[in-house]
Specification:
- GO terms for molecular function: ATP binding; glutamate-tRNA ligase activity; tRNA binding.
- It catalyses: tRNA(Glu) + L-glutamate + ATP = L-glutamyl-tRNA(Glu) + AMP + diphosphate.
- Pfam families: Anticodon_2, tRNA-synt_1c.
- The protein has five domains: 119 residues, Rossmann fold; 88 residues, Glutamyl-tRNA Synthetase, domain 3; 82 residues, Glutamyl-tRNA Synthetase, domain 2 (Orthogonal Bundle); 41 residues, no CATH class; 72 residues, Arc Repressor Mutant, subunit A (Orthogonal Bundle), CATH 1.10.10.
- It has a three-stranded parallel sheet with strand order 1-2-3. The protein has a three-stranded antiparallel sheet with strand order 4-5-8.
- The chain contains 19 helices and twelve strands.
- The termini are far apart.
- The model has no long low-confidence stretch (mean pLDDT 94).
- Helix 1 packs across helix 10.
- The protein has 456 residues and is an alpha/beta fold.
- Helix 1 links the parallel strand 1 and strand 2.
- The chain is elongated.
- Helix content is 45%, strand content 12%.
Length: 456
Amino acid sequence: MKPRVRFAPSPTGRLHIGNIRTAALNWLYARKHGGHFLLRLDDTDTARSTDEFAQAIRDDLEWLGLTWDAEARQQDRTARYDSMAAAFKASGVLYPAFETEEELDRRRKRQLAMHRPPIYDRAALKLSEAEIAEKIAEGRKSHWRFRLPNTANGTGLAPQPTLVSWNDLIRGDQTVDLGSLSDPVLIREDGTYLYTFTSVIDDIDFGITHIVRGEDHVTNTGVQLALFEAAGATPPAFGHHSLLIGADGQALSKRLGALSVQSFRDLGLEPMAVLCHAALVGTSDAIEPLASRDALAEKLDFDKISTAPGRFDVEELKSLNGKLLHMLDYGDVAERLHALGVTGGETFWNAVRGNLEVLGDARLWWDVVTGDIEPVIEDAKMTVAAADVLPSEPWSENTWSEWTAAVKSRTGAKGKALFHPLRLALTGRESGPELKSLLPLIGRDRVLARLEGKRA
C-alpha cells in the first residue's frame, strides 16, 4: 500500500523551522514511496486562524517545493464532526462536564496537597439526568470530555493502569498509561472542537496511513489510539521526531518567530538549502547540500533520525546555502542572475560562485567587476609599478600569473606583499574570488584606472 501522509499546520502564524522539519519528513516519505501528501489546515481555532496565514503557509510550502496532492480545511468539515460527536455522545464515550476552569484549578490544587495525581476526577459522570437538566436551566454550558477506556472491565470511575503501546516509526516501542491521564476535553463550551478529536476523524476519512510529527505529541497518541478504537477504525502508523534546540543548546520555542520561512527568504537563502537542513538535522547523515528533492528523498530513513534533540544553527544553514550555490551550474541560476541585473554569463558565474553565501552576493561582485568602485591604494609604489607592466589585451586566466610575475620582477615583492595591494586596488576588498578569473572581466581600462587610484 502506498503511504498517505499529511502536514497539518494551524493557520495562526507563519511556518517556522520546526514546522518545516515535520513537513519535509512527511513530503519526502511520500515522495520516496510514491505516496500521497495532504495539506490539512487545522483551523478549528477560529479566533486566531486567518485566511492570510493560510495563504502564507501555501506560499511557503510552494517556495520550498513541497507541493501537495490535495488540501482540506477543518472549518469545512464541521458537519462531519457534528455527526461523529453525536455518535460518541449516544454511545456514552463523550459526556458533558460543567466545571469552570477556576473550579478545576482548585480541585487540582487539593489533589496535589493530598499527594494525588492532578487528573480529572470524573465528577461529571456522577451527575443524574435531572442534575444535568438543572445546570442547563441555570444557563451553565458544558464542555464534553472523552471517557478514556481505563477502568476495570469498563465499569466504575476510578482510573486503572491501562497501557497503550505502539511501535513508533522513529522511537521504537512506546507506551502511554491512559490511567495517568485526565479524560480530555474534545468539545469546548462554545461548541468548537479541539484538535485531538478533529485530527482523528480527518485521519480516518482521508485514509492517512502514516503520521509523522514532533515528540511533543507522544502522549496525544495514546489518547488518539483510544479515539480510533472508539470510532471502530484502524489507526495509522505513528512516528515522532525529536524537537529542535538552538546552537546554544537552548529550546527554540521563544525564537521560532525569527526562524520563519519568511525570514529565510528575506535572508536570500535557497529553498533547497533550507529543505536539506530541515530534513538532515538530527539524523546520522551529514548535513550537506543536495541539488534535488528526489535525491534528498532517497536519503530519508526513519532509522537515521536520532531521538536526541536536533541542533539548529542559522550560521550552519547559511554555510550550507553557500555550499549549495558553489555546486550549481550557470543554467540553474541564469534567469535569477538576469533578474538581479547580472549579465556576465557563465564566465562570471564560474568566477564568483565559490565566494557566495547567498545568490544576491553575485550582484555585489558584478558591481566590483563593472561598477564605479573606490580603489584602496595600500602601496602606491607597488601599484605604479604594476601599471607600468600591465600587459595589453586580449586577456585570459593566464594573464594574472604573467602580470604578477612581471610585477614581482620589477619590485621584488612576493607573497602577501605582492598580492594584497593588487587585490585592494582592483576590488577594494580584502578577499574574494580568484583574481585570475576576475581580471579579464574587469578589463584593462578599469584595471589601469584603479591602479592609479581613480574610481572606475
